[in-house]
Amino acid sequence: MSNEQKVTNDIKVLNKDLEVLKQHFPNCFDKDGNFQIEKFKQNLGEKEINFSNESYGIDWLGKSYARLLASDPATTLLKEDETHNKKKENINSENLLIKGDNLEVLKHLANAYYEKIKMIYIDPPYNTGSDGFVYQDDRKFTVKELQNLIGVDAEKAKRILDFTNQKSNSHSAWLTFMYPRLYIAKQLLKDDGVIFISIDDNEVAQLRQLMDEVFGEENFISLISVLCNPKGRSQDKFFATNHEYALVYSNKVLPKGYFSIAKDVEQINNEYKEEDEIGKFRLLELRNTHREFGKHNRKNMHYPLYVDPSEGSVSLYNTNGNIEVLPNWEDGFEGCWTWDKKNADGNLYLLVGKKTNENWKIYRKSYANSAEKMLKTILIDKLFYTEKGQKEFNTLFKTKEKIFNSPKSVDLIMAFLKTITTDQDIILDFFAGSGTTGDAVIQLNAEDVGNRKYILVQIPEDIDSKKNKTAYDFVKNELKAESTIFEITNERLIRASKRTKEAINAKIAEKEKEIIELEGKLNIEDKDEKIKQLKAEIKALQGQDFGFKIFETAPIWEDYDFEADELDSQTKLFDESKLTEDDIKALLTTWKTYDGIVLAKDLETIDLEGYTAYYGNGKLFLMNKGFTTDNLKTLLEKIDSDKKFNPTSIITFGYHFDSKNLRELSENLKSYSNKKNIDIDFVTRY
To answer: Integer distance in angstroms from the first to the last C-alpha of the chain?
Structure first.
């Protein structure tokens, strides 16, 4: 296979990238939708872009297979846990906990949450050899099939199938496991979204190169070192390892200071010693303290300022008695200011002149209001220790035993959350583990009265009764559930929500008490305004989301093709009569997300004169049997008369409609001129 053919095949596999190419380079596709690499090169060549024959990147056995997995359709359905989701605390929640293989779940989320996630945090398997990671893949391809799908020779196809079928934990196996998950995850991030990945020395080098390939080298933000075990691991061979990493990448190039966070009260009190009518401030020298900048390369920032010696006020103009000050150093080096003349002119009220050692200097006031700081690339605070995470978990579960081993510190995840997330943002963790990320979102929302939402994904991995008997017995006996990691994740979210809700209720009670005390006092300045503010704070606290909805993946039925849109010899093999009501609900949930409707949003039930349909985001789903001409008439009348009912797509489950019904529906929708002039797309799926 030529390099150009390989590029073409790779582009076909990465379907989201293909959509971007079609949008921006439609002339590079033929009438059948095939990408024409030579036209693409020519188009870029016209813009003077050089194609290099040499490149730096990562390659491994299984890379082409990993690309296939990234675009291969889901092999499961999504099923709702109705019993849990209909509980009072969960029914309107927008938080999600999803049980299933995270690659399958990510594929289900791909359309509904495309470019909706602000932050992803994951703590994937480190592939240490002792963490239990092995590559497992239930897809079954023959050597010939894999050759045709990914364009490799028979020998390489066989080697790939060997390690995918033999539970390998090689670097290649780990990269094949991670690539499709990261590739889809990138599609979910908002334009200014960011991903944080915890990792250790075993795979950090491979992960860095993989992230460069998936996210782009220009979107690397930082490799943060986290002191997680101050004592170090005594079982290590040469040095006692006491740190891990957090690798950070953005979805696009972000501006300087994007990750800065607010300074805490203690920092402000220590650093901002002075105060005026505006607030607390500190004085920072206006002269640039870096000698690499000066008059020689910043001429527009070398100009005189004038100080009134009696007041310390600063002006751009010399008047009688004022003292000229230049940004020069004591040894004669001609420096520069950090502001140009225009900026100084607009902010003279912030400038102060002070005499130090017989020399006058210019300072600017830096106020504590909205003061920010950057996180360091080495995090050594004891709040981030793994031991702290273990104590938090054990306190929540009221145990001294290790039900879950070495969970991350909530404070570490909260520190990451504070750098980029705000009210209403969605945070995703598709290696949820003990549920630390969900706990961190709950606590941070309580701290700043935010309304962030979390989506956690955890595979129902069995707990080994021999290796971790404590955890196995706890889930089995106390939770009365199947002994899997998922049940621990679920229970932590319940307990974390309950604990934080109790703390919030205590805050609300305090504020209600303040209101009563204020109402009983006379002659209090701004009394009504203070009461109004307290009531607003109470309302915000009461609006916190302490619930979560549960969904899980379920196998697609035998002989069923999720993407079929017409009856053929294969789809005719499927026996729809065996489907239960729960099966149809699972299919509806799956289609809902496939059609871009978020999982947290319930579909509206529409009664069409005895026939139940489901509606949301302009999509109307006709899933059930028994649709008649009368139902069709009611549907058309509703489109005309109901202002809130504006379907742009009507989607039918073809197995539950005979050909006459489908033809009647299709023809009437095409010929009917509805009063709203809605262009309705009619879709049949099998």
So the answer is: 36
Closest by CA position to 247, among listed 225, 264, 216: 225
- The closest alpha carbon to 621, from 600, 641, 635, 637, belongs to 635
Q: Quick check: 511 and 532 in contact, CB under 8 A?
A: no
Residue 477 is given by DSSP the state: I
415, two tokens: 């520190």
Which residues, including other chains, have CB under 8 Å from residue 15's CB and lie 6 or more apart?
A: 71
CA distance 412 to 437: 10
Q: Following CA atoms 519, 520, 522, 523 in sequence, which dihedral angle do they give, to the nearest 10 degrees?
A: -40
Q: 621 vs 154, 448, 614, 660, 682, CA distance in Å?
A: 45, 40, 5, 18, 10
> Percentage of the chain with pLDDT > 90?
71
Question: To 5 degrees, how large is the angle CA 40–CA 45–CA 50?
Answer: 110
Q: Return the sign of the alpha-carbon dihedral for residues 89, 90, 91, 93.
A: positive
Condensed to tens digits (0 to 9), the pLDDT of residues 527-538 reads: 889 999 999 999
Is residue 108 within 8 Å of 593, Cβ to Cβ? yes
Tell me 328's DSSP state: B
Pair type for strands 649-653 and 619-622: parallel
Say how far residue 503 (Cα) sits from the centre of its chain. Answer: 27
Q: From residue 325, how far is each of 260, 295, 315, 329, 363 by CA, in Å? A: 33, 14, 10, 11, 11
What is the structure's pLDDT at 127?
92
Supply φ then ψ for residue 519, to 5 degrees.
Answer: -65, -25
Q: Please, which residues have CB within 8 angstroms of residue 331's CB and are 6 or more apart in sequence?
A: none
- Token readout for 567 is 């009856």
Helix (H/G/I), strand (E/B), else coil: 287: strand
pLDDT at residue 36 tops 70:
yes
Helix, strand, coil percent content, the chain, rounded in steps of 5? 40, 20, 40
Which long-range contacts does 639-646 make (Cβ < 8 Å, 24+ apart)? 639/674, 639/676, 639/678, 639/680, 640/674, 640/675, 640/676, 645/606, 645/615, 646/618, 646/676, 646/678
Q: What is the 3-state secondary structure (H, E, C) of 392-408?
A: HHHHHHCCCCCCCCCCC
CA–CA separation, 485 and 456 (whole Å)? 13
d(CA 315, CA 329): 21
User: Rounded to 5 degrees, what angle do the CA atoms 184, 457, 548 make?
Assistant: 125
**Cβ(334)–Cβ(294) under 8 Å?**
yes
CA 145 to CA 75: how far, in whole Å?
Answer: 18
- Retrieve residue 97's tokens: 């906990």
Q: Return the pLDDT at 458.
A: 98
Compute φ and ψ for 668, nearest 5 degrees.
-70, -40
Asked if 651 contacts 621 with a C-beta cutoff of 8 angstroms, the reply is yes
CB atoms within 10 A of CB 90: 19
Q: What is the DSSP string of 112-173?
A: HTTTTEEEEEE------SSS-----------HHHHHHHHT--HHHHHHHHHHHHTT--SHHH
Closest CA relative to residue 342, chosen from 300, 376, 374: 300
The 3-state DSSP class for residue 3 equals helix
3-state SS, residue 274: strand
Dist. CA 303–CA 337, nearest whole Å: 8
Model pLDDT for residues 423-453, shown as the tens digit of each residue:
999 999 999 999 999 999 999 999 999 999 9
